[in-house]
Amino acid sequence: MNRAFLEFLSRHLLPLANPQFRKDPIVDRWVIVSTDRAQRPFSSHGDTAPAAKTDCPFCEGNERATPTEAFALRDRQSSPNQSGWQVRVVPNKFPALAALGDANLHNEGTYDSIDGVGAHEVIVECPQHEKSLARLSHQQVSKVVTTYRERLLALKEDRRLAYGMLFKNVGEAAGASIEHCHAQLIGLPMVPVMVRDELAGAAKFLDRHQRCIFCDLLSRELAAKHRIVCTTERFIAVTPFASRFSFETWVLPRTHQSHFEDLEPADIDEFASILKAVLMKLDAGLGRPAYNYFIHTAPLNVPPQESYHWHLEILPCFSRVAGFEWGTGCYINPVPPEQAAAFLRGTEI
Amino acid sequence: MNRAFLEFLSRHLLPLANPQFRKDPIVDRWVIVSTDRAQRPFSSHGDTAPAAKTDCPFCEGNERATPTEAFALRDRQSSPNQSGWQVRVVPNKFPALAALGDANLHNEGTYDSIDGVGAHEVIVECPQHEKSLARLSHQQVSKVVTTYRERLLALKEDRRLAYGMLFKNVGEAAGASIEHCHAQLIGLPMVPVMVRDELAGAAKFLDRHQRCIFCDLLSRELAAKHRIVCTTERFIAVTPFASRFSFETWVLPRTHQSHFEDLEPADIDEFASILKAVLMKLDAGLGRPAYNYFIHTAPLNVPPQESYHWHLEILPCFSRVAGFEWGTGCYINPVPPEQAAAFLRGTEI
């Protein structure tokens, strides 16, 4: 982290009363302006990374270092905000959005903004100081996935929110500021552009071909086989035809389903096992790379969609996004996805 | 750079005969799959960065380390591929696209691809081993801008190409693999999605309001003043209302103009001076941060557009893009653009 920038943040930045969503007037792109985010620890890797449970705010026993828990899977005899939990959900200490208030729209000439309200939670995925989801037991990963589902269901109760984005940053190169294994959930008052574009593309395909484009692609991939990383009875892990990044991998249910939170409890175990398998293959074959993953699912407040199909996208970080990508929106990928899939298929775990 | 990934690239990656454009079947997103890019030096910063002209392929005297020059501003008495130049343009040694061939479309079920043909040039911006454009003389920056314009004009002659993306990566965090001051130009057979979205948004605004949205925003910004970084008679540098990144800054001509390459030679000097001023302010105020910049201009083969207005976008890199941004397309910016502009206005150069 650039020292002069940190100095700007600590000496010059004036906190805004509330975060704001601002809309780019030319393209349909929202930005969250949130000075609270500037306060979070920017350099907890390297020298200053908590090496063990004593300093880590997410380790069992340090519950007082976080805001009050919103949810936990914990031993029956244990109490909230005490030890005895397996997965624990707390509000983000440095939230991008304000938890309270209404998402009022403001207009100033050509400029639109919305009050920056929404949810921002941290899902602590294990009590011990472990960095990698892939190294948790299968049973523990099932608990993590169960928690993802529970928290998305909880967001549905908040009528201000249109979308829940569940995401995970692993490693400094992927933007993680704390190394203890965790995911985040941000609830937004609008459907974000990446999902909206997918929904629109999928709706157009349904309109033309009377079927879900994801189901269509899955059956092609299963027939062709060369981009399949691994499968279970009900899930598939595949490197997409137009992968943006080396070893980009998507996990999808074989049976059509638009909402992740509609996952049957019986399927959670199986989803956990394929997710763990893919992450283990990435760790084993590629030296525990930094990566992001996120779940693309249908908006919170819509009924099941015939056109849309939820999936989890894993984006490993091997190189930097640079000017060409920012300027064009076109990515340069040095590893053909067919070769990525073959390598991961052959990587033993 | 991850060691296991480098090992994959050197031991397992099979080169493709030709690069390919692949289109995501769900959203309108092209990807370039190019194994040649995997061969470029990934770690020329830090230990292995050429400290001086002896090892740097871009330094004067080392012309044999690059492919044959495509263009140069050089002393009259000097010869191509010899010393005596001020700005030198060479094909990229590790091109993302193939220079020869036609951009044929291929289709395989739901999957579309195009042969990865196009231009990929490196513009070496000074003969001496200098990293920062901001530290070049005003006269030298004018020569750099003149060269940008010349190379975009040259791309217009190639009827296969629809778009020319001029971009620059400065610093390792911004994806630069060589530190000697340079920019790149990639000629594409299609208009990339980021530009297409801007063209569409601007066309919609023209349709509704009978004026260019950029001209409209400029007059608002000049009246409000608080997002202006600096101005000259014919150019403005502004931090956009919906800045994605801390200290994001755009430079635009005050007078409507859709194509960068239509810049009058008389205006080049002035554009060079505002560009240099903004970069000097970033360097002085924020400790020479890594950044990307690129020019958004109208497509190569269209007449002047009433709706579109070229501009240069500078995106400093202070933090990593993470899972939330990848999943949503929504950026979290900790520095309100009004505060960024005030800080840069107050930064003396």
Task: Please write out the topology.
The structure is a homodimer of 349-residue chains.
Chain A: H1 3-11, E1 20-23, E2 30-33, E3 71-74, E4 85-91, E5 105-108, E6 111-115, E7 119-124, H2 138-156, E8 163-170, E9 182-188, H3 193-209, H4 213-224, E10 228-231, E11 235-238, E12 249-253, H5 265-286, E13 291-296, E14 311-316, H6 323-328, E15 331-333, H7 337-346
Antiparallel strand pairs in A: 1-2, 1-6, 3-4, 4-7, 5-6, 7-9, 8-9, 8-13, 10-11, 11-12, 12-14, 13-14
Structural class of chain A: alpha+beta
Calculate the terminal CA-CA distance of chain A, rounded to whole Å.
35 Å
Number of strands of chain A: 15
What's the arrangement of strands in the largest beta sheet of chain A? 3-4-7-9-8-13-14-12-11-10
Instruction: Write down the Rg of chain A.
Output: 20 Å
In N-to-C order, the SSE pattern of chain A is HEEEEEEEHEEHHEEEHEEHEH
Beta-strand share of residues of chain A: 15-25%
By DSSP (H or I, 4+ residues per run), the number of helices of chain A equals 7
Uncertain ranges of chain A: 43-49
Any overview of this molecule?
The structure is a homodimer of 349-residue chains. Chain A is α+β, with helices and mostly antiparallel strands and 349 residues long. The first copy, chain A, contains 7 helices and 15 strands. Chain A has a 10-stranded antiparallel sheet, sandwiched between helices. In chain A, helix 2 packs across helix 5. The longest helix of chain A has 22 residues, at 265-286. Chain A is globular and about 55 Å long. Residues 43-49 of chain A have low confidence and may be disordered. Chains A and B meet through helix 1, strand 2, strand 8, strand 9 and helix 3 of A and helix 1, strand 2, strand 8, strand 9 and helix 3 of B. Strand 2 (30-33) of chain A pairs parallel with strand 15 of chain B.
